[in-house]
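Ops channel
N.P.: pipeline sanity check, posting one input/output pair.
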């Protein structure tokens, strides 16, 4: 059972933003590896091919639709963090994609290493920002909404959502290669491990910061 946070907004917001940045880097590494993008990015890239704009912009637009669906399922309005997530991940993705030194490796081995690194970085970035408890992103909100209603495990739910995004994106002309299938299958499994690990790390960080803050206040009171 995870501890529910109500205070320490400053540290939690920092963890939240760091998690979004890390997750966005992981997403982009998978795209740049050119072995098949992440499931949702097959959809985003397919929309980019069909209608223009940027991949990050489509990430935001699709996110809006998913947030509305999550609201209908849970019959509640998502926290502000969900909307911050929706906008920042799109911006961070475009930022990383524009970096001139982030290029596709020349060798297959290099591509595989980049792909695997991106997959794990993505999952742990997701776990990190969720652990701050300021609101899950659109896709993760839908995942959590479904697990809350059905009581199913995170892994199967996440995998099902990823596969659905792949099929729709492929129909729109999005790139589909073996890496996309591997990503779709493994993302739920890795996320199932990453979420509790990141939550424990965040619990530890916030506990230490709360203790240090309390000690500083007590020291200040004694000096006064």
């Amino acid at each position: 059972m995870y501890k529910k946070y109500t205070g320490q907004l400053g540290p939690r917001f920092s963890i939240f933003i760091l998690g979004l940045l890390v997750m966005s880097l992981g997403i982009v590494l998978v795209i740049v590896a050119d072995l098949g993008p992440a499931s949702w990015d097959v959809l985003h890239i397919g929309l980019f091919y069909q209608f223009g704009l940027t991949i990050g912009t489509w990430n935001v637009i699709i996110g809006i639709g998913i947030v509305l669906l999550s609201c209908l399922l849970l019959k509640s309005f998502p926290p502000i963090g969900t909307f911050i997530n929706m906008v920042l991940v799109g911006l961070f993705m475009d930022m990383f994609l524009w970096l001139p030194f982030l290029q596709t490796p020349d060798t297959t081995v290099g591509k595989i290493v980049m792909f695997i690194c991106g997959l794990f970085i993505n999952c742990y970035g997701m776990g990190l920002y969720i652990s701050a408890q300021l609101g899950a992103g659109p896709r993760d909100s839908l995942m959590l909404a479904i697990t809350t209603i059905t009581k199913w495990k995170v892994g199967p739910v996440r995998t099902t959502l990823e596969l659905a995004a792949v099929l729709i994106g492929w129909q729109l002309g999005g790139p589909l290669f073996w890496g996309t299938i591997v990503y779709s299958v493994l993302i739920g499994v890795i996320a199932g491990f990453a979420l509790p690990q990141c939550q424990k790390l965040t619990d530890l960080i916030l506990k230490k910061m709360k203790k240090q803050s309390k000690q500083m206040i007590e020291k200040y009171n004694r000096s006064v």
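N.P.: looks fine end to end. The chain has eight helices and no strands.
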